[in-house]
Amino acid sequence: MSLPQPTLDVEPSEKVLSLRQKRQQQYHRSLRSARFRALGWELTGRLTVNLVLTLVALAALVKLVPYHQTQRQVLSELEDSVATLQVHNRRLRKDFTRYFDPAQTSQILQENGARESAQHIPIVWVEQLPEQIGNSTDPVDAANPVESPEAAAE
Q1: How far is it, in rounded angstroms, from Cα 42 to Cα 44?
Q2: Alpha carbon distance 37, 153 (integer Å)
Q3: Whose C-alpha in 19, 79, 113, 150 is 20 to 30 A from the C-alpha of 135?
Q4: 69-119 pLDDT tens trace
Q5: Tens digits of per-residue pLDDT, 5-32?
Q6: Could you state, in order of their start, the residue ranges of all structural domains in the chain?
Q7: CB 97, CB 103: distance < 8 Å
């Protein structure tokens, strides 16, 4: 019911072949340019994301550097205060062991209280002895002997 079709063994002409070749080249070019365009968009996106991340990291560093410097300053102040407190603590510990040393109890009681040992001789420093006040070599003082500051004011 169907009739056999004749087979044509005709080869396409040069013109048709050149048109096919041009179409294939255009198709491949369009595919290649589409691939390059997609690759370009991908690289642009990657560079944009990396640039944004870099800017965010720089902004964070700009904020963190002053904070870090203040923290280091506070740390150095704390270390200084710890050092002074350690010296103070050492002194207090030394005093504590001295105060509770049974061998030094009597000496500490004498230092802190009014009790003195029988061997203790008090020494009192005086600027001028009373005999030297009356025997002054100054002619003004010898002419006008002053007995009290009130008498001198009159």
Answers
A1: 5
A2: 113
A3: 150
A4: 999 999 999 999 999 999 999 999 998 988 888 888 778 877 777 666 677
A5: 777 666 778 887 888 888 888 888 888 8
A6: 14-115
A7: no
